[in-house]
Design brief:
Elements: E1 2-7, E2 12-18, E3 21-28, H1 33-43, E4 47-52, H2 58-67, E5 69-72, E6 82-83, H3 93-105, E7 111-116, E8 119-125, E9 130-138, H4 140-149, H5 171-197, E10 202-206, H6 210-217, E11 226-228, H7 232-244
Helix pairs in contact: 1-2, 3-7, 4-5
Length: 246
C-alpha cells in the first residue's frame, strides 16, 4: 500500500494505492493531518510520498516519517525520464508528478500534459522519455480576478460552466466570453502548435478545471488523442514512489 499526498495552492489531495490500483481519494482545503491519520489507520500503508507547491507542513512530514517509509518529491529524486528543464530547481513538483502520470498512462508516446488549476501548465514529454518543459499561463479564476483587480469598474465574475456564448450582451457576459472562450482558444492553439512538431501527440488533461476543458475540447480535431485523467498527479506520485523501491 502506498499513501500519496499532493498539496496545491488551494487544495490538498490524499490517496492510497494498492500497487497501481487507486483505492480511495480525499480532497480538502484544510490541514491534511486528520485525513492522513485516517488513511494510515485504515490501510496501514508501507510507503508514502508528498508533493507540495507551498511551504511544507513539518508536522505532516514527521507524521508520515513515523508511520511509513517516507519520500518527499523533489527534482533531485531519481526518475525514469531525462529532465531537460533548464532550471530544474525551480520546476514545480506538481508538474513533474503530472508528467510522470502521463508517462504511466501513455507510455512511449509524445505527450502534452495540461494541468488546469490556479495556473494552467503545459508540459511535454517525448516518446523517448525526455521532459522538454512547457509553459505556465494564468488559470480561470486568476483571469477573472485580474480583470477586477487591475481595473476600476469591471466586477469580479465567477466561472460559469454553462456559459457558451461567443458574444456577450452585458459586461458580465463579455467577461465570461473573454475569459472562458479565450482560455479554450488558447488551449486549442497550443495543442495545434505542439501537434505540428510532435507526431501522434497525446494530450492528457488534469486539474480542477479539467472537466470544463475536456467538455469544450471534445469536438476538436485532436479529440481522438485526448485523455481526461483528474487523478493524474496522484498516479504520477504513485509511479515515482514505486520507482524508488524497484
Amino acid at each position: 500500500m502506498n499513501l500519496v499526498i499532493d498539496i496545491g495552492n488551494h487544495r490538498c489531495k490524499i490517496a492510497v494505492f494498492d500497487n497501481n490500483e487507486l483505492l480511495e481519494v480525499h480532497a480538502t482545503e484544510e490541514s491534511p493531518l486528520e485525513a492522513v491519520d485516517r488513511f494510515v489507520e485504515k490501510y496501514k500503508p508501507e510507503k508514502s510520498i508528498l508533493s507540495s507547491v507551498v511551504v511544507t507542513d513539518e508536522a505532516l512530514i514527521r507524521r508520515l516519517s513515523l508511520a511509513t517509509t517516507f519520500v518527499q518529491l523533489s527534482t533531485a529524486l531519481p526518475l525514469p525520464l531525462k529532465n531537460n528543464y533548464g532550471t530544474p530547481s525551480s520546476l514545480g513538483t506538481d508538474r513533474l508528478a503530472a508528467v510522470m502520470g502521463s508517462k504511466t498512462i501513455a507510455p512511449n508516446r509524445n505527450v502534452l500534459t495540461i494541468n488546469g488549476g490556479t495556473c494552467v501548465t503545459f508540459d511535454l514529454l517525448t516518446a523517448d522519455g525526455a521532459y522538454k518543459g512547457g509553459a505556465i499561463s494564468p488559470g480561470l479564476n486568476m483571469r477573472f480576478a485580474a480583470l477586477n483587480t487591475f481595473t476600476d469598474k469591471l466586477p469580479l465574475i465567477s466561472f460559469d460552466e454553462n456559459f457558451e456564448a461567443l458574444i456577450g450582451t452585458s459586461t458580465q457576459e463579455s467577461i465570461l466570453s473573454g475569459v472562458q472562450n479565450g482560455l479554450i482558444a488558447e488551449l486549442e492553439g497550443v495543442i495545434i502548435q505542439y501537434s505540428e512538431v510532435y507526431e501522434n501527440l497525446v494530450v492528457v488533461v488534469c486539474g480542477g478545471d479539467s472537466n470544463f476543458f475536456v467538455s469544450r475540447l471534445k469536438n476538436s480535431i485532436f479529440a481522438h488523442n485526448l485523455i481526461w485523467q483528474p487523478h493524474l498527479v496522484l498516479i504520477g506520485l504513485n509511479a515515482i514512489l514505486n520507482y524508488q523501491y524497484v
